[in-house]
Amino acid sequence: MVDDSTYPLDDVFHALADPTRRAMLSTLARAPLTVGELAAPFAISLNATSKHIKVLERAGLVQRSIEGRKHVCHLDARPLHAGMEWIRHYVTFWQQRLDVLESLLVEEDRAAAKEERREERRRTNDDSDET
To answer: What are the start-end ranges of the H helices in the chain?
Structure first.
């Protein structure tokens, strides 16, 4: 059985996968804009802009309101929280593994230093035996 609760997260990551859509979200974080204003900085058609906006709407990241003939886009950052929680789980996962790796490397360095001191004592003893 497929877990339908994962689809919103999939939609969020899909929306964030495109640099144009990420730039649109950054722009909308400053202020709501019309579709035309949102399209202006990009060398893409209004049709392409509309497709990007639909992907962002499907992910729940953009809400569109109609004010007369204008379609105004507003950022809704709430769906990003689920993505942050998903990523946070893996930050913890990797942090734990890196902590274990660090412990192993520190222990390896200690063992190597101990072996070096042992070798140095051996050489010192060998040198004193020769004199």
So the answer is: 7-16, 19-30, 35-39, 46-58, 78-130
What are the domain boundaries of the chain? 4-76, 80-131
Which letter does DSSP use for residue 61 in this model?
S
Q: What is the pLDDT of residues 49-105, one digit of tens each?
A: 999 999 999 999 999 999 899 999 999 999 999 889 889 888 988 999 999 999 999
What is the value of pTM for the model shown?
0.69
52-78: b (≥16 Cβ within 10 Å) or e: bbebbbebbbbebeeeeeebbbebeee
Domain 4-76: state its class.
mainly alpha
By C-alpha distance, which of 81, 58, 11, 66 is closest to 34? Answer: 66
